[in-house]
Each structure stands twice: as structure tokens, then as C-alpha cells.
Design a protein that fits this description.
It contains nine helices and five strands, in the order H-H-H-H-H-H-H-H-H-E-E-E-E-E. It is of the alpha+beta class. Strands 4-3-2-1-5 form a five-stranded antiparallel beta sheet, covered by helices on one side. A hairpin with an 8-residue loop joins strand 2 and strand 3. Helix 4 runs antiparallel to helix 5. The longest helix has 69 residues. The protein is elongated, with a radius of gyration of 34 Å. The N and C termini lie far apart (93 Å). Keywords: Apoptosis, Coiled coil, Golgi apparatus, Membrane, Mitochondrion, Mitochondrion outer membrane, SH3 domain.
């Protein structure tokens, strides 16, 4: 019991000493030991990392789930360590409504059949969106949260300890200055030596933790690459789904002509249905490729092709590409079916099929 009382008294004395030192510093009545420039820069960088990690995390959450009420609900389920209820997203809800209405009008009619096909495509897009959100949550949001709730909290804890050790050090310096008697000065010098040692040790611990922020940046860069790849796959899938749907809807000319006639009767110009360029394949598009590439691969001939995206060659055997340029492509027996030989003037090399659109 006496030990606890003494410990409490010692802690109270330390707290009071720190409070007096802090107050006198604020009033300009006491000197303050400044941290070295390197440590200050590390602290500033850590704060900057924390600030922007929070902002990026918040805006990504808004992008993945625009509904704030759903975000709050998912947050509570996460804190309770329970699985959030599965719900249909907006694309799936629209798709189901289109399928139900199409079946009601009759899938044998042009309008009913078109509604069903649109609904099925909307549900496919909904599924792709669900996979994109799940992938982004695991590979992008979770590492950012782990930094804020784990590593940075540890940094804050050690930084607070460093602040306390600095206050103890400066209080010991002040005590030594005020000591008059030889015995008091000897005790003050011993106290200063001990607090200086504790401050130096805590500064080193804090520095090592802060220097680890560099590895955090490297990790977050890999997470950012994963996020961009997930977006690329998601948008490519959505584009391919809609291109395929447009081709299917093109088989209902009577529907479009009736719309055009209706527009003409109303005194307006006829309505034309735009046709999007259809690529043979896109990354993550579920292997929906046209027969053009299959014929080219089997025939061994050559065709002109338009480049859809920029591509940087990974080696000397490959050919770098620029979006919208036209090159000649051909197939070589035994070659991987995902690649073709591309030619641009006197340049020649392997090119990925997913970056090309065959021209007639």
C-alpha cells in the first residue's frame, strides 16, 4: 500500500513538473530543447502522410459507396465484427426491374426481349461493380486503414513519450540552474544526466519509427497500382458488356424504325443509333472476343489493326504501341494466342491482342 502511495506521489510530481515547464515555455519564461532538423522533418512528413492518407481513404470510400447511410451501416458492422447484409446494388436493381418488366410484356415481343437483354447486361455490370468494390476494399482501403489505425497510432504514442521526455529534460536543466547548494547541484546534475539519456533513447526510438514511413509509401504505391488495375478491369468489362448489348439490340430494327417514325411524325429529325467501335478483346472482359482474331490466328495471314491503348514493351522481343496508330499484325504458328506479331515500318515485335482492334 505504501509503495502505491509513493508511486502515485512520484507520478503526480512528474506531471506537475512537466505542467510547470510547459506553461513557462508558452509564456517565454523557460528555454525549450529543440529537436534536431532531421527528426523534425521526419515528423512533418509523417503528419503529411497521415493527412493525405485520411483524405484519399475518405474520398475512395465515397467513390465506392456514394450513399452515406450505407457507409455508416457498414462501419458499424465492421466495428461489431459482423458481416454486413448482402444487398443488390443499383445496377442489379435496375437489371432486375428490366427483366421483370420484359417478362411481363412478353419475352417473345421485340420490346420485351430487349428489356430482358438490357436487364441481364445491367446485372452483369452490377456483378463487375461488386467485384471491383471488394477488390478495392481488400487491396487498397484496408492497407490505408491499417496504417492510420496501427502504425501511425504507434508513432503518435512514441511522439507523446518523446514530448514528455523533452519536458523532463528541460525541467531538469531549469532545476540545475536554480540549485545553489553543492548537494542540491550534485543531485540536479545526476537528474539531468538521467533525463538526457532517456530523452536520447526515446528520440532514437521515434526516429526509427518515423523512418519506416518510407516503406509505408512504397507499400501504398503497390496498393495504388492494384487499385488502378482493378479500375481498368472494371471499366473494360462494363464497356465490353455495353458494346455486346448494343450489337444485340441492333437485331431489332423495327423497334428503332418505329421510334424514328414517331420522331418524324412529331416534326423532328430521324433518330440514329450510334455504333461504338467494338474491340476484339479488352483486359478483364471475360474473353468476349470477335471471330476476326480467331480467323487471323488460324489462317496465318496479316491484317491492319488500330491500337486502342498505349503499350510499353516489356522486352526487346515486343513492340511499343501508341493509342490510335494503325499497324500490321500477323500470326506465327505455335505463338501464344494472346499475342500477335506487329509491324510498323521496319520495326517488328510481339503485341498483345487486348490492345488491338482489327480493321476491315
Amino acid at each position: 500500500m505504501d509503495f502505491n502511495v509513493k508511486r502515485f506521489a512520484a507520478d503526480a510530481g512528474t506531471f506537475l513538473s512537466r505542467a510547470v515547464q510547459f506553461t513557462e515555455e508558452k509564456l517565454g519564461q523557460a528555454e525549450k530543447t529543440e529537436l534536431d532538423a532531421h527528426l523534425e522533418n521526419l515528423l512533418t512528413r509523417a503528419e503529411c502522410t497521415k493527412h493525405w492518407t485520411e483524405r484519399i481513404l475518405k474520398q475512395t470510400e465515397v467513390l465506392l459507396q456514394p450513399n452515406p447511410n450505407v457507409r455508416i451501416e457498414e462501419f458499424f458492422y465492421e466495428k461489431l465484427d459482423k458481416k454486413a447484409p448482402t444487398r443488390m446494388n443499383n445496377h442489379e436493381l435496375l437489371g432486375q426491374a428490366m427483366i421483370d418488366s420484359g417478362n411481363e410484356f412478353g419475352p417473345g415481343t421485340a420490346y420485351g426481349n430487349a428489356l430482358v437483354k438490357c436487364g441481364e447486361t445491367e446485372k452483369e455490370i452490377g456483378g463487375a461493380e461488386r467485384e471491383f468494390i471488394q477488390s478495392s476494399a481488400i487491396n487498397f482501403l484496408t492497407p490505408f486503414r491499417n496504417f492510420l489505425e496501427g502504425d501511425f497510432k504507434t508513432i503518435l504514442k512514441e511522439r507523446k513519450l518523446l514530448q514528455n521526455k523533452r519536458l523532463d529534460l528541460d525541467a531538469a536543466k531549469t532545476k540545475l540552474k536554480k540549485a545553489k547548494m553543492a548537494e542540491a547541484r550534485a543531485a540536479a546534475e545526476q537528474d539531468l544526466k538521467m533525463t538526457q539519456s532517456e530523452f536520447d533513447r526515446q528520440a532514437e526510438i521515434t526516429r526509427l519509427l518515423l523512418e519506416g514511413v518510407s516503406s509505408t509509401h512504397a507499400h501504398h504505391l503497390r496498393c495504388l497500382n492494384d487499385f488502378v488495375e482493378a479500375q481498368t478491369t472494371y471499366y473494360a468489362q462494363c464497356y465490353q458488356y455495353m458494346v455486346d448489348l448494343q450489337k444485340q439490340l441492333g437485331s431489332f430494327p423495327s423497334t428503332f424504325s418505329s421510334n424514328n417514325n414517331q420522331a418524324s411524325m412529331m416534326g423532328g429529325a430521324s433518330v440514329s443509333v450510334p455504333t461504338l467501335p467494338v474491340s476484339s478483346s479488352l483486359p478483364g472482359a471475360g474473353g468476349r472476343s470477335s471471330s476476326g482474331f480467331s480467323e487471323l490466328l488460324s489462317s496465318g495471314g496479316s491484317r491492319k489493326a488500330r491500337v486502342l491503348y498505349d503499350y510499353d514493351a516489356a522486352g526487346s522481343s515486343e513492340l511499343s504501341l501508341l493509342a490510335d496508330e494503325v499497324i500490321t499484325v500477323s500470326s506465327v504458328p505455335g505463338m501464344d494466342s494472346d499475342w500477335l506479331i506487329g509491324e510498323r515500318g521496319n520495326q517488328k515485335g510481339k503485341v498483345p491482342i487486348t490492345y488491338l482492334e482489327l480493321l476491315n
